[in-house]
Specification:
9 helices; mainly alpha; TorD-like
Length: about 200
């Protein structure tokens, strides 16, 4: 049996997708393309959500790049899930394999230009945005099985992966003392339902 299409639910999922995608852009190396996409997303988000992105959009790209490398660069705050899993200190493989398994199951391919491991925050956030778009499509078209599978995977990935480590990550970001990345941490907390 196919459910009635649900445009309102689809719209909520698309809004979630835009928020997750914006979050993913905040935690990847800044570039003109990233700034352009972030600006476009800000234009699609309602009121306060768009305003929260202003610190990034108003900052000259060179300054944003310096802040990124100071906070999230090689000697900065680790932005990979396996860096927060005590069991992964012996081997990051199981965490990365589980994350990659989710990606494969849903046909998600991370931006190859990013050059990050599967459990990097930006990649995980992009995946949540991707799942939210799939859920919106399924809701819009009344595809019951796709709704169930996608929304279940979304919740499981959020609980088992992102929510497992994002609070500790945000704590380390706060300790880094960057106003810009404090703003990014607040955005992430809001997306994760903790802000």
């Amino acid at each position: 049996m196919t459910a009635q299409p649900s445009p309102a639910d689809a719209r909520r999922w698309l809004e979630a997708a835009a928020r997750w995608r914006a979050a993913s852009l905040l935690f990847r190396p800044p570039s003109a393309a990233v700034a352009t996409e972030l600006g476009a997303l800000a234009g699609e988000l309602a009121g306060g959500a768009a305003t929260a992105l202003t610190p990034f959009l108003d900052l000259p790209l060179d300054d944003w790049e310096r802040a990124y490398h100071a906070v999230l660069g090689p000697s900065g705050v680790a932005a990979c899930e396996s860096s927060y899993d005590d069991a992964a200190f012996a081997s990051r493989g199981p965490v990365i394999a589980d994350v990659a398994g989710f990606y494969r199951a849903f046909g998600f391919v991370a931006d190859p230009g990013l050059g990050e491991v599967p459990d990097h925050l930006s990649v995980e956030l992009s995946f949540l945005a991707y799942l939210a778009v799939k859920a919106a499509y399924a809701r819009h078209h009344g595809l019951d099985e796709a709704v169930t599978v996608t929304e279940d995977a979304y919740g499981k990935f959020l609980d088992d992966h992102l929510l497992f480590w994002e609070a500790r990550f945000r704590g380390r970001l706060a300790a880094a003392g960057s106003d810009l990345y404090d703003a990014a941490a607040r955005w992430l907390a809001a997306c994760a339902g903790r802000g």
